Amino acid sequence: MALSGDSFKAIEMRTLHHFHGGIHPPTHKSQSTGTGIATLPLPEKLVVPLHQHVGNCAVPEVRVGEHVLKGQRIGRPEGRQSSAVHAPTSGTVAAIDMQTVAHASGMPDLCVTLIPDGKDEWIAHAGVDYRNTSHTDLRHMLRDAGVVGLGGAVFPSDIKSYSRHHKITTLVINGAECEPYITCDDMLMRERPRDILRGAEVLRELLYADEVLIGIEDNKPEAIAAMRKALEQDGHQHMEVIAVPTLYPGGGAKQLILVLTGVEVAAGVRSTEKGVQCFNVATAWSVWRAIAHGEPLLSRIVTVTGNVEHAQNFEVLLGTPVQELVAYAGNKPDTGRYIMGGPMMGVDLPNSSVGVTKATNCIIAASPALFPPPQPALPCIRCTRCTDVCPAELQPQDLYWFAKSNNFGKAQEFSLFDCIECGACAYVCPSHIPLVHYYRYAKSEILVRDHDKRAADLARERHEFRQFRIEREKQEKAERLAQKERAAAEAKAKAVTELPTQVDPAADADDTQQLRIDAALARAKEQAAAASPRNTELLTPEQRSEVEAIEARRAKIHKIASDAGADDEPPKRN
Amino acid sequence: MITALWIMVALAALLGLILGYASIRFRVEGNPLAEKIDAVLPQTQCGQCGYPGCKPYAEAIAKGEADINLCPPGGEEGIHKLAELLGVEFKPFGENAQPKPKAVAFIDEETCIGCTLCIQACPVDAIVGAAKQMHTIIASECTGCELCVPPCPVDCISMLPLEEKLTNWKWRYPVTPLKLSK
Ligand code: SF4
Ligand code: SF4
Ligand code: SF4
Ligand code: SF4
Asked: Which of A122, A323, A450, B125 has the smallest number of CB atoms closer than 10 Å to its CB?
């Protein structure tokens, strides 16, 4: 491994650590770094998905036919974990509907289709001085500007830049970009290092972090030099650009944190609990644009490479159809499919008309010559090569076995969810087993099962409550019936003769009738069960006099009420 | 508006209390095996097993009175789980107990006459509505048991199969050509 003088110095200054395993696949990066970042001409139309981030889908807040300006919010963040979506240029909203999106599923999702008017006219916008602005306001600006992690995870940055329970000592800025073919972060660091570092300062401020460590793999000497120069130029303190050895997947957050700080983030633990938070370089850049210039996230740098005439990086408006992008780079006719992301972790796009999203860091035009179809898989020979390279220190061959046999409980026991899907295991597997596909399959099955389990628990709870309610209603009904029976009995025993004169039939017709019915029912019951004693007969003299007193009171009140012409209910008797 | 909000909050608190009370009061003590079985049953409460709900079926299995292959909503996987739990052999579904794709009920609100019959049939209170008012199904709480379908006098309830969406999409089981070893 050839180290440049600069990075060698950095390694000397700081002891770097190692993560387990790792591989050295051919990088194929030089193809797309020959020319600088180019801007794509305005496309004919933009298909902007409203769900480009982790969390709730943004809610559309424009109408079809409405004219929108560049930077105007078209999707409002919904709920705690969400992010805004904006019009990447000025134009007219042609549709708000379900369209196929850049996702492995090939499923449709809610998108806003925008026809650009060609003027690229900005909405009024202005930045703030982050040193004079409250953290709450800054985070709100990030959320409203749609800033999310651009390294591929698209997690809302406003949430990630807040640590209430843990003191953050180190902010790691990830410029490692370890995956083959992808060079968008490399070019961004070469061309716009100052704004990246300024964005890092904002993030440091938000997290109250003591130091900022910027990790860049040592196969990017130009980026390292540019970042170091910018750091010196702007005099950033407690900030360091560190060259890390090129080893895939050194750009994984846990791996980079380990290499730079020696902090091992164990299974199921968040790095913030260990005092470290990590952001991608492009995210830091967008943070600065959003805070200091009031510019929402409207575009991103995308590497277009593979089977094209001139592989290059482009600044691409979100929603730009992939086919326009690859056509501009000189797509060759034998391209069979398109990979979003790199060859190790990327996914096949369902078609080439889907729009670029915040997660699209790279588009690889794949031809059968460049990416031959997978070889037939052979049985696992338990060679443990996969175990040797796994950066998460898992047992890939066991996980494969459990996923293959749908033994999900066991897979979870063996820390399936710690797998970062880096593909190192599949890369070295002599049996060509598509290991990562098995892990993705098992993970999504487990997530759906967890969801079903929660739904079943809720259903059980609701069912039990319903039974409780029915039971309670039954009891109440029985009580009411008993009460009525008693009332009727009393009415018969005491007031059969006086009731009609007592109650004003006009004012209380219903009630009188009800009492008559009750009395009739009681009579019928009595006849049916002639032997059953009435409880009034077994009363002691004291009780009897008490009842009589109550009855007298009741009659008096009743009289007053009917005299006053009130059509209220007669006083209840007990 | 504010009053309405307060009423909702008060109602939520009250229902929470009742629910909490119910869970304590109706805690079934004793048969832990039946509870374990109940925990793996899908809680659709549909009665297709021939028992008036999942818990009665669980109790019947625990007593050894019922077979483990009677619950279609649980699917084959449910039988596997029961077999594992009870340490018995897996048993495939019989002729007339075949699992169907998951569905949720949907009320055609134009046709609904507000008779409340479906509300009385729903085992999980997933239908809201008052007498002579249009009724609606809370899709997230509907278990797809179909019990509300037959009582409806105007046949306005239909079962819609649950479609696959981006939010519930799953990676498929890998299909790769397997080369036989030479
Ligand atoms: S590398 Fe492939 S063949 Fe070797 S143990 Fe792992 S899964 Fe099996
Ligand atoms: S894909 Fe998962 S199991 Fe395979 S090497 Fe990477 S982290 Fe390990
Ligand atoms: S058949 Fe229906 S009621 Fe019976 S256990 Fe299965 S889901 Fe529950
Ligand atoms: S709404 Fe109908 S199908 Fe859904 S749970 Fe209630 S009764 Fe069953």
From this structure: A450
User: Helix, strand, or coil here: A171?
Assistant: strand
CA distance A101 to chain B (A): 10
Within 8 A of A448 by CB-CB distance, chain B residues are: 168, 170
Question: Which whole number is the average pLDDT over A483-490?
Answer: 88
- Over residues A121-147, the pLDDT tens digits come to 999 999 999 999 999 999 999 999 999
Report the complex ipTM. Answer: 0.77
* pLDDT above 80: residue A513: no
* Boundary-marking domain end, from A293, A309, A331: A293
Helix, strand, coil percentages (3-state) for chain A, rounded to 5, are 40, 15, 40
* pLDDT higher than 90, residue A211: yes
**Does residue A571 sit within a domain?**
no
Contacts A–B by Cβ distance under 8 A: 91
Protein residue with least CA distance to atom 2, ligand 3:
B46
Amino acid type, A216:
I
Give the pLDDT score at B28: 53
Interface of A with B in 39-58 (CB under 8 A): 51
Q: Can you tell me the distance from the alpha carbon of A542 to that of B17, in angstroms, rounded to the nearest whole number?
A: 41
Based on the fold, state whether residues A477 and A517 are members of the same structural domain. no
CA of A457 to the centre of ligand 3 (A): 14
Q: Which ligand 4 atom sits closest to the C-alpha of B157?
A: 2
Least confident of A109-118, A121-130, A369-378, A498-507: A498-507
Assigned domain for A318 exists: no
Stretch among A36-40, A418-422, A566-570 having the lowest mean pLDDT: A566-570
Whether residues A265 and A206 fall in one domain: yes
**Which residue of chain A is at minimal alpha-carbon distance from B177?**
A376
CA of A267 relative to ligand 2 center, distance in Å: 14
User: Rounded mean pLDDT of A212-224?
Assistant: 95
Query: Domains in chain B and their CATH numbers?
Result: 32-86 (1.10.15.40), 101-163 (3.30.70.20)
Task: Judge: A51–B166 Cβ closer than 8 Å, yes or no.
Answer: yes
Partners of residue B173 in chain A, C-beta under 8 Å: 441
Q: What gap in Å lies between CA A287 and CA A192, rounded to an integer? A: 13
Tokens of B111: 């046709």
Q: Is the pLDDT of residue A570 over 50?
A: no
* Partner-chain contact A463 B53, CB within 8 Å: yes
Residue A434 touches chain B, beta carbons under 8 Å:
yes
Both tokens of A540, joined, read 């002691």
Q: Enumerate the residues of chain A whose CB falls inside 8 A of the CB of residue B170.
A: 441, 444-445, 448
The ligand 4 atom nearest the CA atom of B125: 6
In a domain, A403, yes or no: yes
**Is the beta carbon of A422 within 6 A of some atom in ligand 2?**
yes
Specify the number of domains making up chain A: 3
pLDDT at B141: 87
Among all residues of chain B, which has the CA nearest to that of A374? B176
Instruction: Please report, for the domain that includes residue A173, its CATH number.
Output: 3.40.50.11540
Structural domain boundaries enclosing A488: 385-492
Enclosing H/E stretch for B129: none
Same domain, A268 and A180: yes
Cβ pair A345, A435 in contact under 8 A: no
If asked whether residues A404 and A515 sit together in one domain, one would say no
The yes-or-no verdict on residue A348 having pLDDT over 70 is yes
In this structure, the answer to whether residues A286 and A405 fall within a common structural domain is no
Residue A312 structure tokens: 């290059």
Q: What is the model's pTM?
A: 0.77
Task: Judge if A253 and A144 occupy the same domain.
Answer: yes
pLDDT in tens, A391-425: 999 999 999 999 998 888 889 989 999 999 999 99
Contact A149, A281 (CB under 8 A): no
Residues A486 and A535 in one domain: no
Residues A97-107: tens digit of each pLDDT: 999 999 888 88
What kind and span of H or E run contains B134? Answer: none
Residue B56 CA to ligand 4 center (angstroms) comes to 19
> Is A464 in Cβ contact with B43 (below 8 Å)?
no
* Residue B18 scores a pLDDT above 90: no
Cα dihedral angle (A177, A178, A183, A187), rounded to 10 degrees? Answer: 40
The answer to whether position A353 is within a domain reads: no
Q: Which two tokens stand for residue B165?
A: 């969406």
Q: Which of A253, A271, A293 is the last residue of a domain?
A: A293
Q: How far apart are CA A448 and CA A160, in angstroms?
A: 26
Closest-CA distance, B146 to chain A, in angstroms, reads: 14
